[in-house]
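hey can u check if this looks right to u? its 122 residues, i copy pasted from the old doc so theres a chance i mangled smth
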Amino acid sequence: MSASQTSCRAASESGRVHHRPLAHAAQPGVSPPSSTTGARTAMTGEVALIREQGQTFAVLAVKPHVVRSPQEREALLAAGSEWFGVRTALLAEDGRTWGPNDIVRWLQNVHVSQLPWREFTV
């Protein structure tokens, strides 16, 4: 089996798992603030808030570079948990995921179109 046919999975010390790719990648994404002047601006994006088996969590749709950048993904995971008050995972447009192991495993078995996406602004 070639590397492109297998799922790449690497656990980090923080208990997060990186899986790639999902066969059904997300289309929405988080857009960073448009201003670089230092003024606080709104961030918009797509989030799916999920309640599954008594657990509530958020899935943020992100651009692929966010999942590839350790600093960006950890910052967005922390911000997402603060914004939505629940554990958060990231789902990139290219199908890569990052977040708590149980959420990432759950995402591997769900088609992205089944998630209840909604727009958010913070």
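The CA atoms of residues 70 and 76 lie 10 Å apart.
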